[in-house]
Every structure is written in C-alpha cells, then in structure tokens.
Write a structure and sequence with these properties.
The chain is of the alpha/beta class. Helix content is 38%, strand content 15%. An eight-stranded parallel beta barrel has the order 1-2-3-4-5-6-7-8, surrounded by six helices. Helix 2 runs parallel beside helix 3 and helix 3 runs parallel beside helix 4.
C-alpha cells in the first residue's frame, strides 16, 4: 500500500466529551474502535484537577483496553519560571504514573513573549530545562505551536529550530494541529518531526480566518473550511504514521447526546475524503 493511501489511526482527546468521567471516556474510545486517548489537566470537576490518583487513571485505561497517548497540557511552557518548573515536574510525574507516553507543551498565548530574539531564547531555555525532567520519566514532549496571532510560538519551523538548537531531537516532537496550521498560514509540513496530529473542523461560513477561535472547532465533515483532508493526506504521504486525535472545543459537540455516533461519522467522512484522491 502506498503512503498516500495509508489509513489514518484515530485517537480522541477528552475535550470531545469533557463531562464524561475518565472511565466512561475510555469506554467511549473502545466503543468506536479507538485504542488511544488523550487526557487533560484543564477540565474543571474532572480528572486530573479533581485529584484523581494517576494510578486510578492507569488502571481504568488498562481495564478499558486503551493507551494514554498524552496528557494535554503544560501551559505557558516557554515562559520558564520556578513555578513552571514545579508544575512541569508534578505533571510529568502524573503522566509517568498514569502510563502516558508524552506531555503536550502549549506556549504562551496572550500577546506577550512575541519579540523576535527573546521569543526564540525563551523557547530554547524552556526546552533545555524540560529535557532532563522528561527524560528521567521516559516521556516525550510534544510542542504545539498555536496559529492565533497573539501566540508566542506560531511557527512549526521555529519550534523545530529550537529543538535542534538544544539537541532535543530524541526528546521532543511537534504537534500538527489542523486548526492552528490553517490559522498560522505556514505552508510547510514536517511529517518526520510530527509526534501527534490534532484534528478539528470549522464549518461556520461567516467567520473570518483571523476571527476563528476554539469555540468554532467542530468535528470534521464535508463542510470543513480548514482543509483537513488535504492536510491529513499530505502528512500521510510524507511518512507520518502517528495518531490523528479529535480535539473539538465547540460546545455543540461537547454536549452531544450520542458522541459515539458523531465521532464515527466524522471518521467515516475523513476516510471517504481520503479515498477520493
């Protein structure tokens, strides 16, 4: 089978159904034929914030027969402070004990830290500090550039240059997010550097690219404006063999009565779209 016809391997991020408890979320994954999941540390009233022990998460995942691909995420990772170091160690400990393979690293996204020169130096400092933390726990770090104009790390190329500058090729990979790739307007793909792909669509015909926000992110269907099919096809053709993880933030998705049916329909739409090429 040629690379261009390789079938995507899907995963689901807990953001798709944030109200489900972890055990139910893991069971949902298996019900739709998905073996890999991403758990989060930003879901109020849910694990990890509610204090659920990592060992419980690990046991529930094992019982359901799923693997925890990542914990999403260490926020503001490229603003390295003593507080950030403490947070990184605690989250990396949790990831290790929960059986996660990687920790997603999200940059500062509030309009600060964007100055040329300082921006790159901040990235290198954070990656340097994170390397021993991750390596000691057998974790990978997945750097996720965000396409928002206020983000301090929009470019995947810049992220890769930072990783190379600190010799972090064995520890770090990038996240290709189809939403953020579209917003950033960076045409280059880096399939060999990609450790994870986040997928979501935007179907609102009225919103401009610069005004797209997480609240617009739905499941991918035939009305998608982000070019998900083309992005997925190009990544597969370039040799990417990792996970394509559903990460919609729109409330209309998160409140679905039958998320299994909706996610399955989106998987089918993507497979059908790929088959047309």
């Amino acid at each position: 089978m040629s690379a261009t016809r390789s079938a995507p391997v899907f995963a689901i991020n807990h953001m798709v159904t944030p109200a489900l408890r972890p055990q139910a979320f893991f069971q949902l994954a298996r019900a739709i034929g998905v073996q890999d999941v991403e758990i989060r540390n930003d879901l109020t009233g849910n694990a990890i914030i509610d204090g659920t022990p990592a060992a419980d998460i690990r046991a529930q995942a094992a019982e359901a027969g799923v693997k925890i691909a990542t914990i999403n995420a260490l926020q503001r990772f490229n603003e390295w402070t003593p507080e950030r170091e403490k947070e990184a160690i605690e989250l990396a400990d949790y990831a290790r004990d929960a059986g996660a393979a990687a920790l997603v690293l999200v940059p500062v996204n509030d309009g600060t830290g964007q100055e040329d020169g300082a921006r790159q130096a901040n990235l290198r400092a954070a990656l340097t500090a994170l390397t021993p933390i991750l390596e000691a726990r057998g974790l990978l770090g997945f750097v996720e550039p965000l396409g928002f104009e206020i983000c301090s790390l929009r470019s995947k190329r810049e992220a890769i240059e930072g990783i190379e500058a600190v010799g972090g090729q064995d520890t770090f990979r990038i996240v290709h997010d189809t939403f953020h790739h579209h917003l950033a307007g960076e045409p280059a793909l880096f399939p060999q550097w990609t450790g994870l792909v986040h997928i979501s669509g935007v179907t609102d015909a009225a919103v401009s690219i610069s005004d797209m926000r997480d609240s617009h992110r739905v499941l991918v269907d035939g009305q998608d404006r982000l070019g998900n099919i083309a992005q997925i096809r190009a990544l597969l053709a370039g040799g990417y063999a990792g996970l394509f993880s559903f990460e919609p933030f729109a409330e209309e998705v998160q409140r679905l009565d039958d998320p299994a049916r909706a996610i399955t329909a989106s998987m089918t739409a993507i497979r059908n779209g790929l088959a047309q090429y």
